[in-house]
Amino acid sequence: MAARAVSPFHRTPPEVVLPELEVSVVLLEEEETPSYGTASLPSITADVLAFLSEGDMAQEEEAPPEPPARKGPGVNTLLVGVDELLSLGDVSSALELLEKAEQLDPLESRLEGARARCEQAQRAALEQRLGSVKQVPRLKLRMAELMKLSLDARMGFLLSRIDGHLNYEALFSVSGMSRMETMRVLVQLLDQDIITLAPR
What is the DSSP string of 66-115? Predict the structure, then answer.
């Protein structure tokens, strides 16, 4: 194999030697933070405490005393009022007094008799308002007008049974309510001018 001729102009570059650098790390000393002492809070003296306590006592002394609670009527007074209202024909007010008496003392033995007298007076007033049980009620309003009224479920059900043929006595049987409750609803319908009595 023939040797390659070296050009006289070709020179090998000299090696560059870099001087070694010494790297020194200087650790900065942590500065000391001066410590400041916390100033002690002044303590409350006995004179100040005495002054504050005297102020609280003065406020308590100046406050007017609350008036004693007024006691309501007892059960005996309420029951007497029930009988007086029944004698005047005011059954609704008598029932209100009776309910208050029942709340005060539910075990009062006279409550049962007072309740029976109220129900008897109420039944008599309802029967007088309705008249004869043989009378036949009929609707006074059309169905479209009834739909606009705010009627509860009892009124709506009873109105669905009023067809111009059933009398009061028959409605008591098909209403699904007690006789007393059915009479109450019928009186409400009469008072609101929703039903009327069919001519005989």
Answer: PPPPPP---HHHHHHHHHHHHHTT-HHHHHHHHHHHHHH-TT-TTHHHHH
Task: Find the domain containing 147 and state its range.
Answer: 137-197
Q: Domain total for the chain?
A: 2
CA atoms of 168 and 114, how far apart (whole Å): 28
Q: How many CA atoms lie within 13 A of 29 on its CB side?
A: 3
- 128-154 per-position pLDDT tens digit: 999 999 999 999 888 888 888 888 889
* pTM recorded for the entire structure: 0.57
Any domain includes 49:
no
- On whether both 141 and 192 belong to a single domain, the answer is yes
- Model pLDDT for residues 16-50, shown as the tens digit of each residue: 555 555 545 445 455 554 544 444 444 545 554 55
Q: Are residues 119 and 141 in the same domain?
A: no
